[in-house]
Batch of 4 targets.
Target 1
Amino acid sequence: MSKCEHCIVRQFSSLKALNKEELLKMAECKTSYTIKKGEPIFEEGEVTNGIYCIKEGVCKLSKLSSNGKDQIVKLIKPGELLGQRSVISDEPANLSAVAMEDMEVCFIPKSEIIQFFTQNNNFSMNVMKTICGDLKDSDDHMVDMAQKSVKERLATTLIYLEENFGLESDGTLRVQLSREELAGMIGTATESCIRLLSEFNKGGWIELVGKRIKIVDKNKLRRIAE
């Protein structure tokens, strides 16, 4: 029980509404496992049959577009839950979740989650608030994609990566996306993304350290982003 009670996921997610008895039940029915970098937690169209608690590591949520490109919709960090919408709507996963580094996750079966949902009002309210928050983020992202230039979107994304996932000891972004992934996240061709990174580098706003990126002038990036 102590593991679920003191887990990072409980601190930051809907699970904080569960009482000790419910946490004990959850601890008894959960499955914990490691997912290696590059492996999927689940894939688009898969019936998930439960939710995933992210204890360690970062994963990308992405959707395969009609032209076969992988469009990254969101990055998920420790303390977050995956699959709440699918459990409540009783639909297959709308996105794929793939590990960007080695991860520790726990899986809680749908039957248990639905029981908490029907018996604990605070928990069900928390889940709904999370899903509403995701919808709001999705709306904001859609407006950004439609109204911001690719340059503005790149600046916004670099700031997002630093502020949400932190830095390595050498000052480079901790979460490193490949050029193709970064291009997918800002909705442009890989070549355009590489050209823009080179422009940002020449301008002295970022520094390219091999494949890694270091933000040098965050204020300038903010001005570009806005």
Target 2
Amino acid sequence: MNKSDLLQFIENSADECVALQKLLTSHKALAPENGGDGEWEKCAALEEFLRAHGITNLERFDAPDSRALHGRRPNLIATIPGKKQPVAASSLGLANDSAASLACDSSGASGAASSSLANNQSSGAIWVIAHMDVVPVGNLADWKTDPWTVVQKDGKLFGRGVEDNQQGLCSAFAAAWAFVANKVQPERTIKLLFAADEEVGSKYGMIWLLKKHPELFNKNDFFVIPDGGDPLGQTIEVAEKNVLWVQFTVSGKQCHGSRPDEGLNACLAANRLSVALYEGLHKKFDARDDLFEPATCTFEPTKRDANVAGVNIIPGSDVFCFDCRVLPRYKNEEILEEIKKIVAKEEEVSGAKVSIELLQNAQSKATDKNAPVVKALSSAIKEAHGIEAKTIGIGGGTVAAELRNLGYDCVVWSSLDETAHMPNEYCVISNMTRDAKTLALMFGIE
């Protein structure tokens, strides 16, 4: 099979991608922090789907989490061996269980064999990393359809998670399936990682894998994260802002709504503090970097907990959060020091006490815009779609940050309309096959 035939196969795989989207969306893979029990059932359904399509070299790396179903958060890796292998490709196979058996030793331990393959080939593997978990639906009244049942309309799929991050997951599947179904061996080994826990910090996903299974990854590997992009698939993200999530608990004294003089209004103090943080942080950390959009740091009040049950009760406690996206030129420690100064000043003014809790604290490094993975992806985009790619930075956080901080060059890229986390989230169906073609060219077709 030649290159054009393989790309045509991918073009014709849209129905399979839609079927996979419907399957995945029906399983509510919410983190325990978001009221769910994790990704177990979604991962099981995905694994069954992959096996049914001949992708059988599968390994599970489950992170322990007592809050989740079965006490584990699954991370699934699919491997399609490439031509540059330390052992004969014919002995590995492409779409049969003999390949999968190489991933386990006689005791049943997974990971060692296929990992050594990736780590010993001179050109390295190509990883495509998508996450299985999704965010909550938010206000259900804002949805025009059932968030957990995919609706197909006007060339789009509507449902929670269809773009973030199931579109990238399906593109990765379609690209890999083209090689497996047609018994074509890619030039480079394909590694598809379907990770847990990305939406709330990757503690049980990418962070856990890098800490507990560093043998999986090699500095010669390419890493592509299809979890951000633009409608044309033109932008390659090489840098992310630092992420700092801070929770503030403001403590006052509860009293009757008619006698504020007998209490200390924690809600009022929290409101004052929120405004002071917003204005003070933006004023002090005001640098611009046009690599990013927006080009400045952002400091936004977001989640707020319920305080009291009645209108006529002055709250004695109020809890709110800030989502801070910080340009890499600043250190998160600098932000925290300024936060503490603002808090101390507001405590003095209001008389309330404030405690601070860090929910996420991620400092980011950048991938060089001339790194081999950037050049390889740019070349594939140009060949597939005739588009000149450009490098950017983003404010959103992805698993790329964890990889970059350990010295792995990686890119975040896909063709999408950026409806992530919104009501009526949708995926453009053609984007799945469009991006799969680009990935297939990166994998290597003669």
Target 3
Amino acid sequence: MSKNLTKREEDYSKWYNELVVKADLAENSGVRGCMVIKPYGYAIWEKMQAELDRMFKETGHSNAYFPLFVPKSMFEAEEKNAEGFAKECAIVTHYRLKNDPDKPGKLMVDPNAKLEEELIVRPTSEAIIWSTYKGWVQSYRDLPLLINQWANVVRWEMRTRLFLRTAEFLWQEGHTAHATKAEALEESEKMMHVYADFAENFMAIPVIKGIKTETERFAGAEETFCIEALMQDGKALQAGTSHFLGQNFAKAFDVKFANQEGKQDYVWGTSWGVSTRLMGALVMTHSDDNGLVLPPNLAPIQVVIVPIFKTEEELIKISKVADDLVFQFKKLHISVKYDDRNTQKPGFKFADWELKGVPVRIAIGPKDLENGTFEIVRRDNLTKEVVSNDGVADYINNLLVTIQNDLFQKALVYRENHVTEVNDFEEFKNILETKGGFIAAHWDGTAQTEEKIKDLTKATIRCIALGRLENKGKCVLTGLESAGRVLFAKAY
């Protein structure tokens, strides 16, 4: 098969868009700005979801589900949050349609079916969840409340791109309530570390952990912890956020509890989430001009076996060996596909599975049966080797671990080579345009300077890295005092 993918160096954005569609991950739908996630793409998301869900439950969280619709007055209760999302809100104003008397066969909004109160289609669920928590929390014995939900949300984006920015997307959102500020802060930071663990050990994506500036902070939060990743085109991507909400939402929704001294106090809150945007990060971090490159820990199919035959008799012999191999892989919990389609030639199958990023391909032909060998190809570097069929399942099991580690190391080397310290604004602009990546530069701490740099360069402060050295210096733009370097980048 011909992949006809645009080369990354020619047009990275076009390459990404083509790859997502041609690799059968997703496609644009008949609804403006919304996508259809296809079975192969959804299978990857399901693996992400399963691992994250396990990690959440291991840290004491339980899943629940809350309504898609939020009454407008409830949404407005926490002002900063409402203002922050106002421009992206979709609103339900009526509950019924009727036949249009002037246009036979067409429907119109029934003017007599106007809602008493308009409903916001959730862009995030703090409002509906905190209004619910009011009835769940009375005493310190009810805390901490550690809840997560898997859901869809709607943010009316004007410029969309599959997985990275769509009007509707899938995500998880954790919402927790605590008796003390210290507990809530600990929870916020803990979930950032959970996200980093997942990104690095499953997605094979190295991330920088840090906090957002006040300007970039989640609306309604007192602190936002984040993980930032770097894509192959030198742009950053926010891969996960965890917010310390203070008592803002508790006060907005009057969520109080009786503490151990019997006194009434407001609870302390957090919220945290990752979305199908991680699918975009996965594609952009590892993939190449031949198609997807998937880390084995998230690949729906880790090994594909392709028979090479001319006669039905050869196929029967090869299939017997392949079936035994499939059995061995399944015992090792390796997901495997035996592609014995007789409608496509081996060359087509090779290209197809290469495009879809299957980590390991095994080819078996008549000569392999004679020699007791298999031809094995790694998707990450396209190296080919001939391996004895004796103990091949264990060999492949170890190879998958090697591929996972190699993908992480390759991405880490790229990231480390694209963190550049700069000390003046001309150098800042030059590095941004010629090299990209993260720019470590001094900043005077003001929102005005942050906004001016963004206006001049389109670069934003991605994070103030945790554990950064407090080496004082001069702001890269204003020359005013700076407490330490922060990380700037252009971002998705």
Target 4
Amino acid sequence: MSRYTGPVCRLCRRETAASKTGEKIKLFLKGDRCLSRKCAVERRGTAPGQKTAGKSRSKVSEFGRQLREKQKMRRYYGVHETQFKNYFREAARVPGQTGRTFLQLLERRLDNIVYRLNLAASRAQARQLVTHRHFRVNGRVVNVPSHIVKPGDVLSIGDRSLKSPVFESNLEVARNRRPPDWLEWNEQDRSAKVLQLPAREHIDTPVDEQLIVEYYSR
């Protein structure tokens, strides 16, 4: 299945319209724009193609809730359907809570680490920067966005990359925003260290992972 290349704001509007609580669901697919008044969820609360606000919808089945949650999580991390399913299978083989392990695997992707460190405005930009060989893990260039980091790994930026306008802008943002507690940013040498596996309370992904476990366990 190819990666979605359409208007990403439609994805957030779809999730918001499907929310039973009326909560505004933001997948942060366009970086800081999602925090501004230009955010499509703030301007238009209806689902894509739905012309009238408040239009009634049929009751969603349990399977529909599970599917919606799976789609939301997959789009949040920008992962292909096959990749997503493989991550679940890997998590299911690990003793313990499958849902938590599943989230940890997605959080430990290199592109997500770059985004969490505020070195990219969005996960899409993070994937691009990783693919263009701007980052090193333990001193070695890694250009695979799906690379899974481990506790103790050190992430650094190439010397030539630091001079680019993109990194100058992103590093300014990184100075003013704190990364999650399971990551440590060193401002002096522009590097980061993975301190531990992320606990559930350190992951702000707006999903109910148990619904996804139930979806794949059918």
